[in-house]
Amino acid sequence: MPISTSKGKRPTLKLFSIPSKSHCQLFSAKPSPTAQHLNESPAPQLRHRDGTCSQESISNFEGPPISDTIFRDSRKLGTYRRGDSTFYSLIEYHAKYGDFRSLEMVLEQMKRDKRAFLEKNFILIFRACGKANLPRKAIELFDRMVDEFQCKQTVKSFNSVLNVIIQQGLYRHALEFYDYVINKKKNISPNVLTFNLMIKALCKSGWVSRAVDLFREMPILKCDPDVFTYCTLMDGLCKDNRIEDAVALLDEMQIEGCSPTPATFNVLINGLCKKGDLARAAKLLDNMFLKGCTPNEVTYNTLIHGLCLKGKLDRAVSLLSRMLSNKLIPNDVTYGTIISGLVKQGRAVDGVHVLMAMEERGYRANEYGYSALISGLFREGKSEEALKLWGKMIEKGCKPNTVVYSALIDGLCREGKPYEAEEFLFQMINVGYKANAFTYSSLIRGFFQVGKSDKAILLWKEMAEKDCKDNEVCYSVLIHGLCKDGKLKDALMIWKHVLAKGLTPDTVAYSSMIHGLCNAGLIEQGLDLFNEMLYRLLSPVIRQLTEKYPRVTTYKIDINKGGLENALSKLNIHSVPTLHFFQDGDKASEVIGADVQRLKDTMEALYK
Predict the structure, then answer these.
(1) Polar residues composition bias: which ranges (predicted)?
(2) Chain-centre distance of CA 87, in angstroms?
């Protein structure tokens, strides 16, 4: 099935005239008939060898000794005549360092000596313009090659300049340059590299259909596409959500006798994985072997990542084993994705097996893999396995960082062992790592759990002394612990502190305060805070709705969809029918009268 081309009018590639803002004259002050049509940002600063910058060409550049003797003491050389190779070496040297002033001197000397200018000399300078982020200067020099230097332009020099423009991300300008030279001047015939560059520029510009059109013109111009042409166009089609066209292009490619490479399959597998079509992606992997094309690391990593994101961990692990048996090395992202996925599924032990298998094959796990596994093991109640893994990590010479220490501290606190966790905090600080808000929040929660609220408060004060920035989570832990411990006055003090800092309490903090107020018999205050919680946490949802549906004057929103289900369940309130909001979305108008009374009656009954 041939891929579809654009049905509408192809984009017009007009040249437009905007004066150059650059003051850096390169090789000639004569205006360029091509470059004057292309608009770009001002020429960037060029660097001297000493690191200083200038908006103009480098002037204090020390050229090689030979340049001084040739240009200033040529009489001492007697009858020696400089050859083309000498000038080429000088151009190569100065181009390497971006010394455009010296390059200008070399070209002027060649003109005085009536030397023949070779195209390869200009290609060196074009590349230097690319490195110096000066595409306009490359275009200007290209335009003067024939008239000023009597050097014939070919597709080689044209492609060199075109590549410079594309490397700068000036895709529209690249299309204009192509249109001017190929379609208007008609003195150069494009080759396969030209088409590859143009298809890349069109795809990057979002004109994928135009790229397909250009691809279809290649046979007419007696230019056969190569594997890079197909790969570039497939990538553009995939990113344009035209997966079927990209897959069809693979079949067409093989019919035309162009053998796909691993990179070709990788583009399609990546596109299918992003679309969620993992079955076809896996089938493509099998087809690679049938076509005699061996998958590489990128192939496996891409498919494994896609399987993990879809929760198909068993297939991902199986594919990982297959990858390792083919002596291919997964990257950190692949291992991290598999381990993280297993932990999320409550399979931290399987994650440890993956990590061990990985290290047996000589691949060293990083700190983030250990952190995810240690956290997962603690959450699954496997504290002994978590501590064993910690010991193995130390034995293997993998130094724990703040992330791993924090995971261990959090796990021990969840096990009701905050004092042991505090020992690791001291160890962490002694080896030079700084505890963060998560580390302290875990410890504070741990001490509250064992009834040591005074110690928890001391840790919070210690945070401030050590310049550790607290956050909403830390305050939420404090408020929850104090309210649970019956210290409503202290909790209210922390609450005011949170609001004074401009922070927004989360649902845990709100529900803890509401619970504390109601336990103290302050039902009215608890209900007021409940209404405030609804307003604060639901107003962003309302604002989005008003922007999306500006003519609708009233909205009914299930509060559970506003992320409040957890907060309400903590209050044993599982159902509040609806809330009505006015169009402006700035505040809730009111909860329906019957609902308000029903909610109040429920709360009073709960906290009698």
Answers:
(1) 29-39
(2) 44
